[in-house]
Design a protein that fits this description.
Radius of gyration: 16 Å
Helix content: 40-55%
Number of helices: 3
Order of helices and strands: HHH
Oligomer: single chain
Largest sheet: none
């Protein structure tokens, strides 16, 4: 499945819900990805606290999944959020692959 993201550490975090109070390697991977998207300022800790929940909510808001923090699922890394998150990561990875192929093509042909 192209939407399942395996991080550089090899842990697959796209198959399970993550929520406030969770603590795991999957949370670290989620935090790393949120940081890459400039939605999380702190260093990944592996603990899904208020700061991570707010970063996930901001992602949900930007992507049109939710409008307010009062809505059910706000700040929770659930199925809809995972799907959208996975699509964006897949696009980013494909773009990186295309750029590397382009750079390789230019290097070979110069």
């Amino acid at each position: 499945n192209p939407y399942n993201s395996v991080s550089s550490s090899g842990s697959n975090f796209m198959n399970e819900d993550l929520k406030m109070g969770d603590s795991s390697d999957q949370v670290i991977t989620l935090q790393q990805e949120l940081k890459k998207m400039n939605l999380l300022a702190l260093e990944p800790t592996g603990y899904y606290g208020e700061v991570t929940a707010h970063a996930v909510f901001k992602f949900q808001q930007i992507q049109g999944i939710l409008k307010t923090e009062e809505e059910a699922g706000a700040g929770t890394f659930g199925p809809q959020t995972r799907s959208k998150f996975g699509m964006l990561i897949a696009i980013r990875n494909k773009n990186q692959q295309l750029m590397a192929e382009k750079d390789n093509f230019v290097a070979i042909n110069n």
